[in-house]
Amino acid sequence: MLQKMTTNTDAIMQIEPIGTIQTPYDEKFAVPRQPGLADTPATIRFSGDYNQMDCFRGIEQFSHLWLIFQFHQAVERGWKPLVRPPRLGGNDKLGVFATRSSHRPNGLGMSVVALQALESVDGKPMLKVCGTDLVNGTPIIDIKPYIPYADAIDNAHGGFAHTPPATELAVNYTPEAQQQLSQHSEEFRRLVHQVLAQDPRPAYQKQASSARIYGVSLQGMNVRWQVVDGQVLVLDLNDRREISS
Amino acid sequence: MLQKMTTNTDAIMQIEPIGTIQTPYDEKFAVPRQPGLADTPATIRFSGDYNQMDCFRGIEQFSHLWLIFQFHQAVERGWKPLVRPPRLGGNDKLGVFATRSSHRPNGLGMSVVALQALESVDGKPMLKVCGTDLVNGTPIIDIKPYIPYADAIDNAHGGFAHTPPATELAVNYTPEAQQQLSQHSEEFRRLVHQVLAQDPRPAYQKQASSARIYGVSLQGMNVRWQVVDGQVLVLDLNDRREISS
Questions:
Q1: A9 to chain B: which residues are within 8 Å by CB?
Q2: Which of A62, A89, A98, A231 is deepest in the core (most CB within 10 A)?
Q3: Mind listing the pLDDT tens digit for each residue in A102-111?
Q4: What keyword terms does UniProt attach to this protein (chains A, B) (predicted)?
């Protein structure tokens, strides 16, 4: 189990979210482990003093933005000095600061997204971005422009995570899933396809052949699927809100 | 004046530094506004539960690291929705989230540095990095590996800050400064040269021709200089600790 460790209370700083992001990913399991799903749209809305157009004046000049956010679903579970990155098959342990693990001191993440538009809704700012890998409802702590000459390091070497994960599985559908998906938007169908092609199974389950059925929640829909002969088979989908009511 | 604004107390998070960075830059004025001074060395030491080698296991696989830090010299002064970026000559106002201004909500900065070495000193970790643009004593909040495929965006467009600032001034020395510098290490002499070649004057003073004498503190030495005919002239240097004692 993860442990809370003692803190250095003298140096504690207080920070607060500036806003919240809305994404199609209802849970961490659904979030792609690579930023390749560039057409997954998301929306950021702001709160309090940050909810004014002035704060974002000129941001459209930039094609990409950094989001600093809180891993809000992980933060309660604390952190450990050593973690097992999925990229290493879940076997090797690395120091938490040698990884982008969400279970980390201070619980902050950073992620680059493409900026689509700054819109004004009733005079309040709304940022439309795409390519996000954040769970729906993630608190946003800061937004900074992506500065190519400073941030894009040509000759950087990325250790065990140098290249993107190569796995992309074929995705097939049962007749039932096909019929159900036909009632959804093309955007949602693409989302389901892209998320499952990334193979969201935990690393330690990818080796084993198993008939295990997984569920992943996307935009309020629970999508059930399994891996058959190395390919994803989508079984069916159900509205989570209907199930729980 | 910058104003403290009301905060959303419900959502406040507590975070704490994991360590502190030691750099040659004693004050913000000395810090280069571009990351080109790649051979400026810096050292990060850790505190409390973060001060153990395990937390950094495997970090040497990565050539570059992200530092998330606190703009500790700016944070007390609060923030404003609009700022005047030096890159725009200090005239145009942009939204704070369209800039990397240090006067920003939550006071967090991020900067990429090259990793030189992870050393163990009495069994405790010490990270040696270079290329930093942080003031000496800056609190470090998080360290993450630089992941090229996710962080280096090839086709990003950086608005007003797309390319590095072009100004690099010639640096000349008075006989007195030359004599004083000869008693310092070659590393220190290079630091003085590189920092002043970047022209640390505020944007609004760069246009005016003026005999104004500036002082910049580097590694505890106060270096005095002025701009003469578009070139930096280093006048002399004094040990700040001797002055103040």
A1: 16
A2: A98
A3: 999 999 999 9
A4: Methyltransferase, S-adenosyl-L-methionine, Transferase
